[in-house]
Design brief:
Blueprint lengths: L1 H38 L3 H14 L4 H16 L8 H22 L4 H15 L4 H21 L4 H15 L3 H11 L7 H14 L4 H13 L3 H13 L7 H19 L1
């Protein structure tokens, strides 16, 4: 009887071990497939695979942060001319936040969980009122700083820092004083610090279209219209590497025309 119990226990342990192995294997396969779709600029199918990977192995860190990334990507591609588009985007970004928080809980010492937490919060904040945006800005900055602290070569984190600095700098002077009365303490930002962070992002990854687009926008804020036009032109010259790049190129084309008008 004792031997039989040991035998049954042994079989149970083997079955559990096999289930865990197969689950992890399935997750790895799904992540690989998701990466292939991501490289093919098919964000919807990539998201499908990453979500399946996260479901197959809830403890897989890579599956969690890549699911967060793809939820943001798909949310960004929602047609803003559709009725109720903001609600759709909010859902994607909120889900992205959930997966990013899971990633951070699984591995707090890697850059990507923190970065996509900052990105999902930032995207969601843009769909809210000023008071909520300011309240969320502090947590967003903490997540960005942590991502950079963990990996000084994370160009996307520097990109996020540049955008954060510019957005906070836009609330200045009397507007900042009035805003403080309405919303409480407003974090300070700087156009110069925005330029510095975005130039670092460009240095780390010069072929990333959106780095140049945001640097161009910061130059516009600094009234450096010649430099802004140069950055917008780079957006048009670079090859597409992400599904969103066509949108970025169209925005760059329009903003370059505005910058050139300022030079006349």
């Amino acid at each position: 009887m004792k031997m039989r119990k040991i035998s049954i226990l042994g079989i149970f342990i083997l079955l559990v071990g096999a289930a865990i192995f197969l689950s992890a294997q399935t997750a790895d396969e799904r992540i690989k497939k998701g990466d292939e779709y991501y490289a093919q600029l098919d964000d919807a199918k990539a998201l499908e695979e990453y979500l399946a990977a996260a479901l197959a192995d809830p403890n897989n860190y890579e599956a969690q942060w890549k699911a967060s990334r793809s939820l943001i990507d798909v949310g960004d591609l929602v047609n803003t001319k559709e009725k109720g588009y903001e609600d759709k985007q909010k859902k994607y970004y909120k889900d992205a936040e959930t997966y990013a928080r899971k990633a951070v809980a699984l591995n707090a010492n890697d850059t990507w969980g923190h970065f996509y937490l900052s990105a999902s919060l930032g995207k969601y904040a843009l769909l809210l009122g000023k008071k909520d945006q300011i309240a969320m800005s502090k947590e967003i900055k903490v997540a960005i700083d942590k991502a950079i602290e963990l990996d000084g070569t994370n160009d996307l984190a520097y990109h996020a820092l540049g955008r954060w600095q510019r957005r906070m700098a836009e609330i200045g002077g009397a507007k900042r004083l009035f805003g403080s009365i309405l919303y409480g303490s407003i974090p300070k930002g700087s156009f110069e610090e925005s330029e510095k962070a975005l130039k670092k992002a460009v240095e780390l990854k010069p072929d990333y279209i959106n780095h140049h687009l945001e640097l161009g926008r910061t130059y516009v804020s600094l009234e450096k219209y010649d430099l802004a036009a140069q950055e917008f032109q780079k957006c048009l010259d670079l090859n597409i590497s992400l599904a969103k790049d066509n949108t970025y190129k169209e925005e760059a084309k329009q903003e370059m025309a505005q910058a050139k008008k300022k030079l006349k």
